């Protein structure tokens, strides 16, 4: 058992499309419990349940089959609605909104 605050497991290198109702990892890296994130909004669960991932590759993929519901102008966050109606938020980094889109590029559009 890892020490508290230590990464829990490594996500798979190959991400395959989820089965109906399933959620895959949006990126390769180490999973950290959300309560250990240095942002109280996320750590408190105010935005819902989730996990944090310390990425090992600079690429994010959709963890579900669905549609892009929102794409923040600063490109640091993406809202996704799965084909099953589950709403997900992928938020990259802490205080990344302050980067105003610098260092991010989107390969998707809303819809």
From TrEMBL:
One of its GO terms (biological process) is phosphoenolpyruvate-dependent sugar phosphotransferase system. It is found in: Cytoplasm. Residues 39-111 form the PTS EIIA type-1 domain. One of its GO terms (cellular component) is cytoplasm. InterPro entries: Dup_hybrid_motif, PTS_EIIA_1_perm, PTS_EIIA_component. Residues 1-22 are annotated as: Disordered. Pfam families: PTS_EIIA_1. Keywords: Kinase, Phosphotransferase system, Sugar transport, Transferase, Transport. GO terms for molecular function: kinase activity. This is PTS system glucose-specific EIIA component. The lineage of its organism: Bacteria, Pseudomonadati, Pseudomonadota, Gammaproteobacteria, Enterobacterales.
């Amino acid at each position: 058992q890892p020490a508290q605050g230590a990464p829990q497991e490594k996500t798979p290198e190959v991400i395959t499309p989820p089965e109906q109702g399933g959620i895959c990892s949006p990126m390769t890296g180490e999973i950290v419990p959300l309560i250990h994130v240095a942002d109280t909004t996320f750590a408190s669960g105010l935005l819902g349940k989730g996990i944090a991932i310390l990425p090992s590759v600079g690429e994010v993929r959709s963890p579900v089959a669905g549609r892009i519901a929102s794409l923040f102008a600063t490109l640091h966050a993406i809202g996704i609605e799965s084909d099953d109606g589950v709403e997900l938020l992928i938020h990259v980094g802490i205080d990344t909104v302050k980067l105003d889109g610098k260092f991010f590029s989107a390969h998707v559009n809303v819809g």
